[in-house]
# Entry
Amino acid sequence: MYYAGLQAKIKEANPLAKFVPCSAHSLNLVGTNAVDCCTQAVLFFNLLQNVYTFFTASTHRWKVLNASVKGLSETRWSARDDACQSLNKNWSLIINALNLINNDDTEKTLTRNEASGILNKLNNLETAFLSIFWGQILHRFNLTSKKLQAVNIDLGVVCELYKSLITYIIDLRFDKNYEYFKQCAIEKSKIKQFQSCTKRLKIRKQFFDEGPSKETTVEYSDFKVKTYFVILDQLRSQLEKRNEKYENLLKNYNFFFKLTEMTSIKVRKNAEILQNEYKDDLSTLFANECVHFRSHLLSIGDEVPKTIQDMCGVLRKNDLIGMYPYIDVSLRMLLSERLSDLAIMNIEFDVTAKIEFDDIINEFATLQSRRKI
# Structure
């Protein structure tokens, strides 16, 4: 297969160029895929939007509600977390407001029918379950996404955060967590059965010396298998798929995060692997340089830098680039694949300090004023 896009052109010029998607945006895509993975999930988020649309369509309905509800957003995926939290926080108020509007004879028939339809969808165990379930998941995803957008984050932390979410999702798949969400939903909705609950006839086989076979009716719901497990499995699959890309890029740099914990021999071996990958950028002296840098970090004591950006900062702050030139090159290669413009400007302080920003600001202001005219 032939690719002729920008990545292909860059790869043609430099085969060693690495392409990594934005970690925060990737996490949003994980959630988006999970939301669309099964019917119940799609219906739940449609209901969230319907609740918001119904109450914000009229100032009278908003006054009856006397609470806050949030809507979804196509561009800001974190709005789903806000919508879930507002639904959980104001659950009783929303139910009461819908009942008042539904039973108000002065309301238009169409309005009462809309209120009745939303009320019927809210008054079931599935909706109560998903509101609690999604509320907890989206809150963790939202906070993690904000951390992934931090300027000083590096790929090592990105992988840690993705792995933490993967473990979190795996743990939720255990029956104890399903029963926890179900019990919370029952207490919230006062409903004990799923609407999808069916009755199944169970016949116990009898031995020849026993009486007739006994028939018992067992209530069964496929909500756990067709909704709960499907959402969790989709989340896990997408997280692992996207985390793999970051780990593949990071695998040759991993030793930098454990320099003070590894022996000098292991540091040397890992440095040689990285040097062999970037022979045109890193000298054969790189491995020995890394061993010395390890000793240097050990001599610092408790103030050992924990991130790649911190290591770059130590080299510049203490004017050590002349001592460790190839370590500086290797760290900057990794940082340039992840950091935002502000972070790069911070690292390249010796360059940015010489730039006259007043001229740039004046030029930008002039261009903007011309547009308005």
Observations:
- Strands lie at 198-204, 214-220.
- The mean pLDDT is 83.
